[in-house]
Each structure stands twice: as C-alpha cells, then as structure tokens.
Design a protein that fits this description.
CATH class: Alpha Beta
Strand content: 15-25%
Order of helices and strands: EEEHEHEHEHHHEHEH
Number of domains: 1
CATH architecture: 3-Layer(aba) Sandwich
CATH topology: Rossmann fold
Strand order of the largest sheet: 1-2-4-3-5-6-7-8
CATH superfamily: Alpha/Beta hydrolase fold, catalytic domain
C-alpha cells in the first residue's frame, strides 16, 4: 500500500529551506528550495536509496549564495515522499524530476545529479533537451554505455548490502549502524572518515523518513527502454565531477563520460570516494558556479 499522507504531514525538511510538495501522478514528492526564484535554477537529484538530506545543506546554501535558485527533493520511497510504491522504473523516476521542474515552473534548468540521480539527469537531457541548459554529473556512470566494460561496485560494498536480508528494521541502533557502515565503505580510504558528521545526517534521516526500509526498493529498479549509446547523443555542456577513490562507481566511469559526451569536462577529486564530504563542498561549488557561468553567460 502506498503511503503519501496529507500535505500538512510533510514538515519543513531543514532549518533554512523553503518546503513544498510536488505531485507526480499518484506520487507526492517532498521538496525544498534555497535562494531566490528569480535566479537561475539548479535542481539537485540524489542517488539510489538516498533522500534530499544527502545533499549537504551547506552545499545548498553555498550555491544559493552564488546566485542560484536551488531545489532538492526526496525520491519516491525516500524521506517524506510517497513510499511503498508498486514496481516502477528509472523512467518513472525521470518523470518525477520533470514534475519537479513543472511544479517550480522551471523552463530551462541546470541539472546536478549524483550516482542514480546523474543517470536520471542524463535521461531528462535526452528526452527533454529544450529544458536542460547543462548537466553536472557527480559519481556517475554513462547512460547506455556500449564501450569496453567499466569497473563496478567494490566487493566489500556489495557484501555489506547483502546484510539487508537479515537487518533488524525494528532496531533504530541496528539500522543506524548499517547506514553508518554504508557511509564508511563509500568514503575514500586515504582521508579521515567524519563519523560524527555522518551519524548526525543518518539520525536526521531516520527522524524524518516515513519508512527507512522502503528506500532500498531502489535496488530492484531498472531501465525499461533501450538507451544504448545515449551518452554520445547528449548535446548539452557536461561537467563531470568524480572522486578518485570512488568504490561504488569507480572513476573510469566518469572518465568514460568525459571522453564520450560531446561537450564535457572532468574534475577529479583526490581523496574523495562515493560521497560529498565537507572538504569537497567548496571545490564542488566553485566548479559548478564557474561551469554554469561559462555555459550560460546570461547568468
């Protein structure tokens, strides 16, 4: 059974964002914005199993301070959005993103996606090219890759996710420890892991999520259409940002995007894994702001 809840049941997600509820068919998506609606729009699209809270609020505030209207939202089955959905595809999650654009009356957008969110952004750029000004793809794999095999998730990360079958979802401590294990395994091994910061984020996520377990429904979704060769057809400017130590989507994936998309550039972040650590926020914000200014001088 789906769980959407009335509009008043979707609380303010953070201390400084402006909350909203977006309708995408039968799905209600929790969303929030930072900055002025009169500024150029940046929409942030998170990865699989992750709500909007995985976009650090300090990153959102920093982008807004650079003159952007920043939107982030909870995917279906995460955070305060509708959960317990029947089977759905990545294409339907793509339509959720389009619904967000429609809700905020964004005619043309700079899309920023990470991991699965980056895949969704690539799909929107191809399916609705007139609405996408640029793409920033973080920790991303190329959509419809037909080249040589690219490396995938590290075995130890896969093994940790294998524990889901026996995880005691009634135990807040067990769930928090599992999520902390995910964060630790996604992080770069050459840099200190900020356990305190990650625990705070996980606790905040658990406090606001309708159902933590439903987020892992994303592990069952796939593509329904044929997107073969899609990355080579993207015409918008593309900024690829990739952690040099990414154990989930190894950096060769980002390099493949940068070498195949028609108009792409690559920023490799040393000492960064499949994560958005505090030390990476300033270089990411600077790279996005500079990239958008070059690709869209009207900003």
């Amino acid at each position: 059974m789906m769980s959407a809840g009335p509009l008043p049941d979707i609380p303010k997600p953070s201390a400084s964002g402006c909350p909203a509820v977006v309708r995408s068919g039968e799905v209600l998506l929790a969303a929030e914005t930072f900055g002025s609606p009169s500024d150029p729009a940046l929409v942030l699209v998170m990865g699989a199993t992750a709500s909007m809270m995985w976009w650090p609020e300090e990153l959102c505030r920093a982008l807004a301070a650079r003159g952007f209207h920043v939107v982030r939202y909870d995917h279906r089955d995460t955070g305060r959005s509708t959960n317990g959905m029947p089977d759905y595809s990545v294409e339907e999650m793509m339509q959720d993103l389009v619904a967000v654009l429609d809700h905020y009356r964004i005619e043309r957008v700079h899309l920023i996606g990470t991991s699965l969110g980056a895949l969704i952004c690539q799909m929107v750029a191809l399916s609705f090219p007139q609405r996408v000004r640029s793409l920033t793809l973080i920790a991303a794999e190329p959509l419809g890759w037909t080249g040589p095999d690219l490396p995938g998730m590290a075995p130890e990360v896969s093994a940790h996710f294998g524990r889901l079958a026996t995880l005691d979802w009634t135990s807040r401590t067990a769930v928090a420890d599992f999520m902390l294990g995910v964060a630790r395994l996604c992080a770069a091994t050459s840099s200190a892991f900020d356990e305190k910061r990650e625990r705070l984020r996980i606790e905040a996520e658990m406090d606001r999520a309708r159902e933590m377990r439903s987020a892992f429904n994303h592990s069952r979704i796939g593509l329904r259409g044929d997107w073969s060769g899609a990355i080579g057809r993207i015409g918008q400017p593309v900024l690829v940002i990739h952690g040099a130590e990414d154990p989930v989507v190894p950096i060769d994936n980002g390099r493949a995007i940068a070498s195949t998309a028609r108009n792409a550039r690559l920023l490799e972040l040393s000492g960064v894994g499949h994560e958005l650590p505090e030390r990476a926020i300033v270089p990411i914000v600077e790279a996005i702001a500079d990239f958008v200014a070059l690709t869209d001088p009207s900003n």
